[in-house]
C-alpha cells in the first residue's frame, strides 16, 4: 500500500502567530518526531519582518503565486496565520490556488456573515480544515474531560472518588478568566482583531463547548480600551455568559487591560471543584490542575501536540471522514456565538451592556 507523502508546511502570515507560535511548535514537533513533516518551511508575507523577525531557515515569498512554485498544493499543509478580519479573502485565494489542507488560526472567521462563505468553500473544494484549538486538545482538557460525568450523576455502586471519572458528580458551572495586558497591539489601528471577543475568548469558548456541549448566549458585555484621551472601541474587556443544552452555565471573562496574565477555568460539580490553570504564555508550557484542593503540575505543550495530531490526520483521514465536519461544526458554533455577542453589545443602549472600562492614565 502506497504511503502518503510527508507534508511540508506553508505559513501564510509571519506575524506573532506564524513566526512566534506555529513555527516554533513545528520545530518542536520535528525534534520529537523526525517524520512529522519535511522542510524547508515556506512562508508568504508581503512585509516580512514588520511584525516579527524573520526566522532562520524559512523561505519567504511575497505572494502565494511564488510560494506555489516552491511548494505545490499536493505536498503542503497551509498554516493560515493572518488576522481574522482578512481570513475569508486568504482562504478564497488558497482554494483558487489548489490548496486543500489547511490549519487556520482561531477564530475561523471574524463574523457569521463570512462563516457561510467559508462553509461553501469547504464543501465545494473538499477542504480538510483544522482550526487551531489547542485548549480543547490539551492534556489538561483531557484531565477535565475525565472528571466530567457524562451520565449527569453518580449512580449506586459508582465511584465517589473526586480523582476518578464521575467522582465529582454532575457538572454545574464553568467560570473562565482570561486576562492579559494587550495595550500595544490593541492600540494599532490595523491589528485585525476588531473586539476583545476576537482575542482570547475563542480559546475558552471552544473549550467549554467541547466539554459542556452546545450552548446559547444569555448575556454579553463589551468595554472600550481607554488610555488618556485615546479610545479603542471594544478592545477593553469582554464578558460572555452561556446556558448549555444540558443545563450547565458558563461565564467567560477576558480583560485586555488587566495588569497581569491569567488563564484559569473553574469547574463546579455537585460534590467539589476542579480548577485548571492553563499556561499564561508561550514562555512556559507547564499547567496546573487543582481538584478539591489537591494540586498537580505537569507539562502540556498543547500547540505542538495539536499540530502533530493535525499532520497525522492529514496523512490518514480523507476529506469524507466525519471528524472534519464535527470539528468544523464546533468552530462554526464559536463564530456564531461570538458574533451574536458582538451584535448584542452593538444593539444595546450605551451604558447597559456596552460599558466603559476604567480609564488608564497616560504617562
Task: Describe the protein in words.
This protein is an alpha/beta fold. Helices cover 31% and strands 26% of the residues. The protein has 9 helices and 16 strands.
Mean pLDDT: 89
Give the proportion of residues in helices. Answer: 25-40%
Q: What would the principal axes of the Cα set say about the shape?
A: globular
Amino- and carboxy-terminal Cα gap:
66 Å
Low-pLDDT ranges: 152-158, 349-354
Question: Which radius of gyration do the C-alpha atoms yield?
Answer: 21 Å
Please provide the count of β strands. 16
Number of helices: 9
Biggest sheet, in brief? 10 strands, mixed
* Beta-strand content estimate: 25-35%
What order do the helices and strands follow? Answer: EHEEHEHEHEHEHHEEEEEEEEHHE
Q: SS-based structural class?
A: alpha/beta
Entry summary:
It contains nine helices and 16 strands. By secondary structure, the chain is of the alpha/beta class. Strands 7, 8, 9, 10, 11, 12, 13, 14, 15 and 16 form a ten-stranded mixed beta sheet that branches. A six-stranded parallel beta sheet has the order 3-2-1-4-5-6, sandwiched between helices.
Key descriptive features of the protein:
about 375 residues; alpha/beta; 10-stranded mixed beta sheet; 6-stranded parallel beta sheet; 16 strands; globular
Q: What's the topology here?
A:
Elements: E1 8-12, H1 16-32, E2 41-44, E3 58-61, H2 64-70, E4 76-80, H3 87-96, E5 101-104, H4 112-125, E6 128-131, H5 139-147, E7 171-179, H6 183-186, H7 201-212, E8 215-227, E9 230-232, E10 237-244, E11 249-255, E12 262-269, E13 272-277, E14 286-291, E15 294-299, H8 302-316, H9 322-347, E16 354-356
Parallel strand pairs: 1-2, 1-4, 2-3, 4-5, 5-6, 7-11, 8-16
Antiparallel strand pairs: 7-12, 8-9, 8-10, 10-11, 12-13, 13-14, 14-15
Helix pairs in contact: 1-8, 3-4, 7-9
Amino acid at each position: 500500500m502506497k504511503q502518503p507523502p510527508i507534508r511540508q508546511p506553508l505559513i501564510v502570515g509571519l506575524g506573532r502567530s506564524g513566526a512566534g507560535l506555529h513555527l516554533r511548535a513545528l520545530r518542536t514537533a520535528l525534534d520529537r518526531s523526525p517524520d512529522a513533516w519535511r522542510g524547508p518551511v515556506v512562508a508568504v508575507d508581503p512585509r516580512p519582518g514588520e511584525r516579527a523577525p524573520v526566522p532562520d531557515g524559512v523561505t519567504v515569498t511575497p505572494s502565494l503565486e511564488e510560494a506555489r512554485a516552491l511548494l505545490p498544493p499536493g505536498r503542503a499543509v497551509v498554516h493560515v496565520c493572518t488576522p481574522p478580519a482578512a481570513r475569508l479573502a486568504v482562504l478564497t485565494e488558497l482554494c483558487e490556488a489548489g490548496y486543500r489542507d489547511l490549519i487556520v488560526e482561531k477564530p475561523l472567521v471574524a463574523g457569521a456573515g463570512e462563516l457561510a462563505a467559508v462553509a461553501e468553500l469547504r464543501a465545494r473544494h473538499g477542504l480538510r480544515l483544522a482550526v487551531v484549538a489547542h485548549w480543547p486538545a490539551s492534556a489538561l482538557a483531557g484531565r477535565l474531560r475525565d472528571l466530567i460525568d457524562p451520565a449527569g450523576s453518580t449512580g449506586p455502586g459508582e465511584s465517589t472518588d473526586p480523582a476518578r471519572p464521575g467522582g465529582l458528580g454532575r457538572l454545574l458551572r464553568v467560570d473562565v478568566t482570561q486576562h492579559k495586558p494587550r495595550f500595544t497591539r490593541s492600540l494599532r489601528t490595523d491589528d485585525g482583531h476588531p473586539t476583545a471577543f476576537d482575542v482570547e475568548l475563542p480559546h475558552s469558548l471552544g473549550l467549554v463547548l467541547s466539554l459542556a456541549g452546545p450552548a446559547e448566549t444569555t448575556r454579553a458585555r463589551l468595554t472600550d480600551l481607554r488610555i488618556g484621551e485615546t479610545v479603542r472601541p471594544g478592545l477593553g474587556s469582554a464578558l460572555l455568559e452561556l446556558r448549555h443544552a444540558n443545563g450547565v452555565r458558563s461565564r467567560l471573562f477576558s480583560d485586555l487591560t488587566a495588569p497581569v496574565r491569567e488563564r484559569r477555568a473553574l469547574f463546579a460539580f455537585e460534590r467539589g471543584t476542579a480548577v485548571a490553570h492553563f499556561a499564561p504564555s508561550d514562555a512556559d508550557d507547564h499547567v496546573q490542575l487543582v481538584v478539591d484542593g489537591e494540586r498537580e503540575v505537569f507539562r502540556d505543550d498543547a500547540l505542538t501536540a495539536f499540530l502533530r495530531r493535525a499532520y497525522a490526520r492529514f496523512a490518514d483521514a480523507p476529506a469524507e471522514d466525519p471528524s472534519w465536519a464535527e470539528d468544523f461544526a464546533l468552530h462554526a458554533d464559536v463564530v456564531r456565538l461570538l458574533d451574536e455577542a458582538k451584535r448584542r453589545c452593538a444593539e444595546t443602549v450605551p451604558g447597559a451592556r456596552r460599558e466603559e472600562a476604567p480609564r488608564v492614565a497616560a504617562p
